[in-house]
Automatic annotation (TrEMBL):
One of its GO terms (molecular function) is DNA binding. CDD domains: Sigma70_r4. This is RNA polymerase sigma-70 factor. InterPro entries: RNA_pol_sigma-70-like (IPR039425), RNA_pol_sigma-70_dom (IPR014284), RNA_pol_sigma70_bacteroid (IPR014327), RNA_pol_sigma70_r2 (IPR007627), RNA_pol_sigma70_r4_t2 (IPR013249), RNA_pol_sigma_r2 (IPR013325), RNA_pol_sigma_r3/r4-like (IPR013324), WH-like_DNA-bd_sf (IPR036388). Belongs to the sigma-70 factor family. ECF subfamily. The keyword Transcription applies. It comes from Spirosoma validum. Residues 28-88 form the RNA polymerase sigma-70 region domain.
Length: 203
């Protein structure tokens, strides 16, 4: 859904018309807030990010006329700011606490599913870098929910060997998440766990 006269409003915003900007803000803010809240699960932080998004939009208003799809542009800014918040949560305990305090993803929501899928794909890419035996252990213990004893019997090794593989694998995953994605490992665990396909636990 867009304004019938959105292009005209965007042209006015581009030259600094605050009234036109306020109309865009009032129209898009509810959907932007809902988008952010699905991932952040904190009203306070979601409001803060909303404000950051529209401040960014106003600061870069001069390029608005060059944008083919304003809605896509707006949601790209929103996604970037949302992920930046998750990255800050990796080093700021208050934000991490707000994000995890009441986190619950609805498996029926398209945007939530897409985010979980993106995180799962990252996890799979990291798993693909592990040695074959470690991948086999991870698959048995986390994807098939086998106990260490069951996995040891299947692979013909000791339970302590299984644990060593899992400890090393989890260290590799944790390092990759915090280095490449820049988010707290605890948040990554929470998001991936929503799928019910790959179970991650801190060992």
């Amino acid at each position: 859904m867009t304004f019938a006269n959105e292009n005209m409003l965007l042209n006015q915003v581009a030259i600094g018309d605050e009234k036109a900007f306020n109309k865009l803000h009032d129209f898009y803010r509810p959907s932007i807030y809902r988008f952010i809240y699905k991932f952040i699960k904190s009203a306070e932080l979601s409001n803060d990010i909303c404000q950051e998004v529209f401040m960014k939009l106003w600061e870069e208003r001069s390029v608005i006329q060059e944008i083919n799809s304003f809605k896509s542009y707006l949601f790209t800014i929103t996604k970037n700011h949302t992920f930046n918040c998750l990255k800050r949560a990796a080093v700021e305990d208050r934000i991490k606490g707000e994000v995890l305090k009441s986190y619950s993803v609805s498996k029926n929501d398209t945007e939530d599913v897409l985010l979980v899928k993106e995180y799962q794909q990252f996890l799979q890419a990291v798993l693909d870098t592990l040695p074959p035996q470690s991948r086999a252990v991870f698959k048995l213990c986390r994807q098939q929910e086998k106990s260490y004893e069951e996995a040891a019997q299947i692979l013909g090794v000791s339970s302590s060997a299984i644990k060593k593989h899992m400890v090393r694998s989890m260290k590799v995953i944790k390092f990759a998440v915090e280095k490449d994605m820049g988010i707290a490992f605890s948040i990554f665990i929470e998001l991936v766990a929503q799928s019910g396909n790959m179970l991650l636990e801190v060992i």
